[in-house]
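Review session, final week

We close the course with one last complete record, chosen because it touches almost every idea we covered. It is Dethiobiotin synthetase, a protein from Nocardia coubleae with 160 residues. Go through it on your own first, then we will talk.
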Amino acid sequence: MQVAVCGPRDCTAEDAQHATRIGQLLAEEGATVICGGGTGVMAAVAEGASSAGGIVIGVRPDTDRTRVCDGLTAVLYTAMGEARNSIIVESADAVIVIGGSWGTLSELALANRRGGVPIVSIGGWRIITSDGREVPESTRATSPEDAVSSALTLAIKAAR
C-alpha cells in the first residue's frame, strides 16, 4: 500500500503534529509514504514514518540535494517543479491531505481528477460548488487516527 501525504511546506504547528502522527501510523500499518520530500508537512510525515521504521519516498520538484528533509528512504529528483505533484498522486493508492496551500490544492485537484483514488482531508481546503456540493468528494477526518484508518480502508475497497 502506498499513501501520498500532501500538505504545505509552510504549515501550522497543528498540521505538523498531524503529519508526524499520520506518518507513524502509516508506518505501523506497513504502508509506504510518498511525499514531496521538503519542509513542513513533508518533513513531519517523513519524520513520523521513519521513526516508526517505515519507508518514505520523497518526490522533489528540483535536483537540489541540499533541500531534502530527513527521514526519506529514497528520493526522486524530477526537475519538474510543481508538475511533480502528478507523480505523487498517481503513485498512491490513497491520498491524505493535511492543511492547505496552493501546491496542496493542486495535489487535491489532481487526486480528484484522477478519480478512483481515495482522498482523506484533515484540515485545510474545502471547495464548494455553486450548487453547494463539496468537491472533491473526499472524506473529512477529525484526527490522524481517523485519517489513516479511512485512507487504508477506502484504498482496500478501491483495489477490489
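Two points worth writing down before the exam:
Residues 131 and 137 are 14 Å apart (CA to CA).
The chain has a mean pLDDT of 93.
Good luck, everyone.
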